[in-house]
Amino acid sequence: MDKLLTVTALRRVVQLIAFAFFVYGAMIFTTFYTGDKLTQNLPALSCAYDMKGGDMCTLIPLQHQMDHRVSGIFTKNAKVMEALMGTLITIGTVAVLILILNKAFCGWLCPLGFFQDVFTMIGTKLGLTQLGSLSRETVNKIRPIKWFIFLFLVLILPLLTGIGFLGHEWGNPYCSICPSRIMTTAMTGDMSQIYISQANTGYFILSLIADLLFGLMVALALFVRQPFCRICPILPMQTLFKKIGLLRLVKNGNSHCDTCSSCVKACPMDIYEIQNQAENKNITHSDCTLCGRCVEFCPHDGVMSFKYGPLTLYGSSKEGFKKRTKIDKWWKG
Amino acid sequence: MKKILLPLLLTVTLWGYGDGVIYWAPHISHGGEHSHGDHGGSSHGKHGGHGIGEATMLHAMNLEGNSSVTLIKPDLSKEDLNLSDTTLNLPKASIGGYYALILNHHTDTQIDSAIRYLSIQGRPSKVSPSKLTALPKSDLEIVPNPLHREHDRYTASKSYRFLLHFQGKPLTNAPITLETRDTPPQTYTTDNTGAFSITLPNDFKNVQVGKSENKPSEFLLVAQHSDNNLTYKSTLTMPYSLNPNDYWQSQSYGAGAITIGFLGGLMFYRRTKKGAKNG
Question: Cβ of A207 and B254 within 8 Å?
C-alpha cells in the first residue's frame, strides 16, 4: 500500500480519471454538444473529433478563428477588434486555465500524454531497453519543432487559407496531423479518422503525415518517454502564460546540484536547465509538464518543490528519494 | 419464386419518397442548390462542414388544408410562422444553434406532424440542444438521440439513434420507415425503450472527389400510430452527406501508413539498442 503513496501514483490516478472524462465524458456528463463542453479551450490534446469527448482542445478554435475570422481583416476589411474578439476570448480562457493549473494540463490531464505514458509502461514491462535521457544536443534540435508547428500549422497556414492563398485542406492543418485525433476517436471505437485521403495533394500529404506520425509515436513511446509531447504545439501556447500560473516548480538549489543530475535523469522531457543553480526561483521551463518526477527524485531536502501560490504542496526530501528509488527498482524489476 | 418477386417488384416500382405523409423539404433552386438566406451560414459547399448552412426556404410537402407552423429557437422560445401556400421563408435568425421547425396538421381522424432541425450560425444561445430535442413538439414524435453535434453532420454509412415518443412517452415495438430518394424504404422497429438505430445508405450518384463537390441528400423517417380511433403520423427529415471513407479516403491505406510509422519506430529502437551495446 505504501508503494502507492507517491506523486507518480497519484498522477496516474488523476490521468486515468481525466482520460475517462476527456475521451468518454459525453457518455457520462452529457457534454455531447459544443456548448456543453467544460471549457471548449482546453490547453491539452482532448480532440474535438471525438464525439464522446468531455472537452475540446484550444487548438481547433484557434485554427478556425485564424481561417474564418482573423483573415477577415485582410479579405473583408473587417474591424480589427471584431475579427480578433474570438481569438482574444480563446487566449483569455487559456490564460485563466493556465493561471489555475499552469502546465499540469500536460503532465496530469492530457489524454495523449497518458496514452504515451501507458505505452512506456508497457515497453518497460515487455523488457524493452528504455532510452533514458536524450542528449542535450538532440533536445536542442527537437525543441524548435513545436514552435514551428505552433506558428505555421496553428496560426499562419490557417490564416493564409482564410485569406485565400491556400486550399481548404490547410484550414486546420494541425488537427489533420494530430495523433490525438486518431487516438481519441479510435478509443471510442470510431476508426473513421484512420485514412489516406486522395482528394488532392494537400489532403494526401496531411493524412499520410498523420498516420505515419501516429504509428511512429506509438512505437517510440515503448522506449522513449513522451515522444510526441516534445513537439506538441500546446507547450508554446502554455509558455505564453506560464509566469502567471499559480502552480509552479520552484528550486532552492545547494552546492550538490552541480554534481547531482537526478532531476534531469528523472525528467521525461529531458530539461537539462533544471540542474542549473537557482535560489528560491520558479524554474517551470517551457517544456515542463509539471509531472513532479524531478521533485520525487531529488535526494536533497527542500531543493525542489511544487508550489501553489504561497503554499508548498510537495517538496523533495532524502526519505522521499529513497522511497521513490526503491519503488522505481521494484517497477522495473 | 413469384411470391417473392412480385412484392419486391411492386415495392420498387410503386415506392415514392414521402408518399402519403407531410414532411419538410428544402427548396431546390434551378441550379440544384439549396436556397440560402442571410443567416450567416455558409452553403453546404466550400466550408467543409462547420457551421452547416441551412436552406432558408422550405416546402411543406403533401400538405393540404389548414396547418400550423412553429419554430422553436435555440433559447427554447417559440414563434408561430405562416406558410405561403406550402412554402415557408424562415425569418432572419437572431441567435445561433439548433432550431426545430414543426408542422402540425389535423383532420377529424388523423393528426400529422413534420419536424426538421436546422443548424444556424450566430451568437450562441448558451442552451444545450439536448433541451431542444427533449421539448415535446407533437403527439407522435421522432427524437434524435442525440442530434448530431453542431460541427458534425449526418453521414452515409454511419449509424444514428433515435427515440419514438407518443404523448411524451416511449413507444415500444413500433415500426419506423427510413426513406431516401435513391434507396428503397427500410423498416426498423423500436425496442422496449422506444429507441431505434438506423444506418444511412450510401446512395449518392455521380460522386465527385471532395466533400464540397457533392450536395447533401435528404432522409425521411416516418412513424405511424393509432390510438382512440385517431391515426397519428409523424416525420423527421434531415440532410445527410456522403462519407469520404466510401470514396476518396482509404482506411486500409491509412492502417498501412500507421504500420509503416510503427515499424519505423521499431527500427529506431534497434538502432539505439545497437548504439548502446557498442557504447
Answer: yes
